[in-house]
C-alpha cells in the first residue's frame, strides 16, 4: 500500500528504509556482476560475446523491443483503467480486473508470435526480409 496505511503516508513506498536498502543492494550487485564474471574461472555468462557486433546489436534490439512492449502494455492499462472502462459503465473498483482481462489477447499474441518470429528468423535470416 504505497499511499496510506494506518494513517502513515508512504508506508511501503519509495521512502521506506527497507525499500531503499533493497534497491541499493540490487544496484550494487548489478554493478558488481560484470567485474565478478570477468574474474571467475567458469562464468555464468561470457562477457566476450558482447565483442561480437551482431550479438551486441541483437541484445540491444531485443532489449529495446522488450521496453517498447512493456511501455505499450503500461500505457494501455492506464488508458483502460482510467478512461475507457469507466466511460463504458465499469465501476472504478473493478477496472483493474477488467483491464487485465482486456490485456490477455495482446499478451497471448506476444506469447504466440515470439517463437514463430524466432523460427522465421532462423529459417530466412537477414536475406529473407522484405525490406
Report what the structure shows.
The protein has helices at residues 17-39, 53-87, 95-124, and strands spanning 4-5, 8-9. The chain is mostly helical and 131 residues long. Strands 1-2 form a two-stranded antiparallel sheet. It starts with a strand and ends in a 7-residue tail after the last helix. The mean pLDDT is 86.
List the helices and strands and how they pair.
Blueprint: E1 4-5, E2 8-9, H1 17-39, H2 53-87, H3 95-124
Antiparallel strand pairs: 1-2
Q: In DSSP terms, counting alpha (H) and pi (I) runs of 4 or more, how many helices?
A: 3
Summed over residues and divided by their number, the pLDDT gives a mean of 86
Helix/strand class:
mainly alpha
| General shape | flat
Strand content: under 5%
Order of helices and strands: EEHHH
Strand arrangement across the biggest beta sheet: 1-2
N- to C-terminal separation? 49 Å
List keywords for this structure.
mainly alpha; 131 residues; single chain
Amino acid at each position: 500500500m504505497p499511499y496510506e496505511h494506518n494513517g502513515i503516508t508512504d508506508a511501503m513506498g519509495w521512502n521506506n528504509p527497507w525499500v531503499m536498502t533493497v534497491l541499493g543492494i540490487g544496484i550494487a550487485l548489478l554493478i558488481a556482476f560484470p567485474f565478478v564474471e570477468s574474474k571467475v574461472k567458469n562464468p555464468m555468462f561470457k562477457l566476450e560475446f558482447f565483442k561480437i557486433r551482431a550479438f551486441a546489436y541483437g541484445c540491444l534490439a531485443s532489449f529495446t523491443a522488450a521496453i517498447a512492449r512493456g511501455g505499450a502494455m503500461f500505457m494501455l492499462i492506464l488508458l483502460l483503467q482510467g478512461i475507457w472502462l469507466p466511460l463504458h459503465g465499469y465501476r472504478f473498483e473493478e477496472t483493474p480486473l477488467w483491464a487485465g482481462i482486456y490485456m490477455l489477447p495482446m499478451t497471448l499474441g506476444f506469447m504466440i508470435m515470439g517463437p514463430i518470429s524466432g523460427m522465421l528468423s532462423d529459417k530466412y535470416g537477414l536475406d529473407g526480409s522484405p525490406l
